[in-house]
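Re-run with default settings, no changes from the original entry. Doing this only to confirm the output is reproducible before filing.
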Amino acid sequence: MAAKCIMIQGTMSGVGKSLLAAALCRILRQDGKRAAPFKSQNMALNSFVTADGLEMGRAQAMQAEAAGIAPDVRMNPILLKPSSDTGSQVILNGRVLGQMPARAYFQKKRELLPEVLRAYRSLAEEYDIIVIEGAGSPAEINLRADDIVNMGLASAVDAPVLLVGDIDRGGVFAQLYGTVALLSPGERARVKGLIINRFRGDAALLAPGLKQIEALTGIPVLGTVKWLDVDIDEEDSLAPALSRREKHKLIDIAVVRLPRISNFTDFAPLERRERLGVRFVTRPRELGTPDLVILPGTKSTIADLRWLRGSGLEAAILKLASRGVPVLGICGGYQMLSESIEDPEGVEGAPERVRGLGLLKVKTRFEKEKRLRQVTGRIASGPMAGARVAGYEIHMGASSEAETPLVALSGGETDGALRGNVCGTYLHGLFDEPEAAAALENWLCARRGIAPGAEKPETAEQYRERQYDLLAAGVRNALDMDAVYRIIEGGTGI
């Protein structure tokens, strides 16, 4: 029997669709239901590699974890990874379909609907309920004709819709009313409930507005979700804000906020450490003299390397490295630390060879085949030697073998390079294992003569499980879950 479904759509990007979908996945799991997430088309630079070596949006991997199931590429059949303001790498069913300008993709995407429906129906045969997440807003009327991610998908799978607005941004009633008003009559009939997200303040002051928006739209408000203090990987977009609440900590880690930064969730485990403070910088004057500089992953290594040069950050980083400040590069950041980067086949644009920062004695060469795999191992050299690591690789290029590799992989291979105070690796999730994060903290503390942290080690999985439960509790308490279940069971009635 095919699964029932419910769809979360939003009045705009960034209203919290991903977290609310994750919360529903967790609540359904707690209530004994077999639930799975689904998003037909995802635009994100944060991606995840499944156990079978396929690439999908990290948000759907997070939602799968919340549901207590393994991430599966069927949960996100189309992933768009922006490489410029007008083009993206298109990932279909976990593998690279090609590089496409926006106009070319929009002309082609309707042809991809059968692939989307094939993935959805396959999941629906295995689960009780599919929690579908939309993208952006269903009120983008210029995109309505060929929509495969909002109301177009809802129509194709006959999904009832919950519409979410973000009150923290202001204008939530206008968001909700305007969105509903721009929908066609058939689309409006699919919207079974409204949700106000990220509320802070006196609920009594909100009550008159709730009654009026129900009267104006004819759609019930199912709840107001308070601002929840949970730490869960969120979706990124073309320009992730990376604005976290900074707390003063003893150790200062500066991450260069590259224009096309990818997988910035790599640094979340460091932010949770007792003594480690993580901040993102875009200018030399913001860099200062940190205890560690990190060059993160990027979707476009050469373009972001040019930006690094033009911004003056390259010169600032080279000066810090010459003074003994540790520098770490991850994936694209590791490639930037090379002596040179070659792109003979034009993987990132026109064929070319560019100079790297030259802090590591390796050379990088781009290849058309993308490397996708999960790996485990241990830090092989340097002050973190011996620490266990578990991560994944997502890159279109390889670097020459280093004289001193950074990581010894479980299969006998090596990864990365170490040269004095500079090191690099292709591994995303390098600090997900508590051993690696603790080893980094202890080393940086020792350099400063600071006593290391004493918190009890907790695995990334244990931490995430606690956060999913906190998220589910907050959303369950805020929503009329009886009404949500009635909507799931009753469908659209169209």
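The two ends are 20 Å apart (CA to CA). The chain is about 30% helix and 25% strand.
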